Amino acid sequence: MKKVYLLFALVAFGMLSCSEDDNSNELPPSSPDLSQMYFPPVTSQEWEKASISDLGWNGDEEQSLYDFLENNNTKAFIILKNGRIVVEKYFNGGSASENYPWYSAGKTLTATLTGIAQQEGLLQIDEPSSLYLGSGWANITDTQESQISIRNHLTMTTGLDYNVVNTNCTDADCLTYLNEAGTFWYYHNAAYTLLTDIVSSAVNTSYNNYFNSKIGSPIGMDGTWLRLGYAHVFYSTARSMARFGLLSLNEGSWENTNILTDTQYFEDMTSISQDLNAAYGYLWWLNGSSSYRVPASETQFNGELIPDAPQDLIAGLGKDDQKLYVVPSQNLVIVRLGDNAGASFLGPSSFDNELWQKINLLIN
User: Does the keyword Signal apply (predicted)?
Assistant: First the structure.
């Protein structure tokens, strides 16, 4: 009988040992491949992260970047690499739940939405804008009106007079003739703002509804468009701006969902759109050209828009230094939101280059 118990004990011990050995040989769960593109879930706040050390970046420069951001009135700052959050910081009373105004950085949303309306056959950007605004939308002749296309609104080349008291005013009396459409580039906010009415008329619903159904909801953005006087400004959290940046990094696709399917439109939108300002696409700012023009100026400047930024950078740039940077060559999306960093411009400012000097020390 003792032999039976002994045999049973040995067998049981052997099974236990095998079981322990099997467990010890199991591989730990595999880590995500940080080189693969990642998209956060649309219906939750989950978002994969990657650390500065994981990416081999220079952690010694991390605090210096944060000090620079905080000292320059930044409230929210995010860096995505391959879609994962590497840096997410809030300063000066900012928070992850706060809705920030994009100001003119939101022009990039309008450019993308206009492309979606075109791919759906609801408008064509080479059509006269009067088809959607109606006649008499500006204080110009019918012939002059017919020569202004939607493309001109997208590229800041309408030829409308920018020497008016309020360049945001979209009343017909504020919109007078100065140059033939397509012959001069000037950052005229009123001409841009009219795209809201053009798109709304073309799609036969409110701008907010169309935006939410075509871009906001499909990629999990929060936020809304609000009227501030004549201006139409988008407000959202910093993460929502990062989501749109990720959509743009992937040329209008969100994982397996194609949002902007017209690849030619995307290429045109993010390339030099006219021969008057080499730093401007369809409402996107472009780096890497040998000259540029800026808001509130008729001067052409020599050199790159942001010399220390990657040459292939495309950007949404708004008043008070709202920044959305997209860098395809490095799979980077960078968001900066907050108050004026010291240079009071509508879009590009000296802060862009100063910030990129700090970013380069971290990522290189």
Answer: yes
